[in-house]
């Protein structure tokens, strides 16, 4: 690789990282600047957001996240409401599918030093006072997605469903006729029949 090509590639990577970092700046909340009482912040989340944080599971979507922050002294109660949809692969046919997201989550932030066993309580160094909510929002979205996500019946990719049916039939021995069966499976089948 020529030096100018290498430097050009490095510059593109640096520029992409700079754009991602500047995009993510909006998710850094200066808690010390919030007014006492109620504060509301809103974020529109799209593919740029998922790309910027390097989301491992969800990489596309269109959502709106509203943060209701109640501030009393150095304590901040933050309610997250995220609504919209994300695009994830179907567990059966692997085609993209849209998954509706409507999640309400809570986080408490406290200025100062400390530690807690409570996952919903975070301590923020008072000299900084910055809470980055970008990853919290993503985690709440990911946790709201069902463990098993599949298309509605009949909506899976027909070509993939046909391949799956062929492989399922081959594994179960359906349609094999007099095809030789592995002797280990035949022995297990005899045990099952005698019970």
Structure description:
Helix 1 packs across helix 2 (47-53). The protein has a five-stranded mixed beta sheet. A two-stranded antiparallel sheet has the order 1-7. Helices cover 34% and strands 32% of the residues. It is built from five helices and seven strands. It has helices at residues 3-24, 47-53, 134-144, 158-172, 183-194; strands spanning 28-30, 37-45, 60-72, 75-89, 96-111, 121-124, 130-132. Strand 4 (75-89) and strand 5 form a beta hairpin. With 195 residues, it is α+β, with helices and mostly antiparallel strands.
Quickly list its features.
single chain; alpha+beta; five-stranded mixed sheet; two-stranded antiparallel ribbon; 34% helix
SSE string, helices as H and strands as E: HEEHEEEEEHHH
- Strand composition percent: 25-35%
Give the strand line-up of the largest sheet.
2-3-4-5-6
How many helices?
Answer: 5
| Net shape | elongated
Mean of all residue-level pLDDT scores: 84
Largest sheet: 5 strands, mixed
Number of strands: 7
- Which class do the helix and strand fractions yield? alpha+beta
Radius of gyration: 25 Å
Helicity, as a percent range? 25-40%
Low-pLDDT residue spans: 11-16
Distance between the first and last residues' Cα: 68 Å
Short description:
The protein is α+β, with helices and mostly antiparallel strands.
Write the layout of secondary structure elements.
Blueprint lengths: L2 H22 L3 E3 L6 E9 L1 H7 L6 E13 L2 E15 L6 E16 L9 E4 L5 E3 L1 H11 L13 H15 L10 H12 L1
Helix pairs in contact: 1-2
């Amino acid at each position: 690789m020529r030096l100018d090509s290498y430097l050009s590639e490095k510059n593109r990577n640096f520029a992409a990282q700079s754009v991602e970092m500047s995009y993510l700046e909006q998710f850094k909340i200066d808690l010390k600047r919030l007014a006492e009482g109620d504060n509301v912040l809103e974020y529109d989340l799209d593919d740029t957001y998922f790309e910027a944080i390097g989301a491992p599971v969800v990489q596309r979507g269109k959502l709106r996240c509203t943060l209701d922050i109640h501030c009393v002294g150095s304590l901040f109660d933050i309610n997250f409401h995220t609504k919209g949809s994300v695009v994830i692969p179907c567990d059966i046919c692997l085609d993209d599918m849209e998954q509706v997201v409507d999640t309400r989550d809570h986080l408490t932030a406290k200025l100062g030093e400390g530690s807690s066993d409570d996952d919903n309580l975070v301590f923020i160094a008072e000299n900084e006072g910055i809470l980055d909510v970008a990853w919290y929002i993503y985690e709440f979205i990911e946790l709201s997605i069902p463990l098993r996500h599949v298309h509605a019946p009949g909506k899976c990719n027909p070509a993939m469903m046909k391949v799956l049916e062929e492989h399922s039939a081959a594994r179960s021995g359906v349609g094999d006729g007099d095809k030789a069966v592995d002797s280990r499976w035949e022995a297990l089948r005899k045990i099952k029949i005698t019970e």
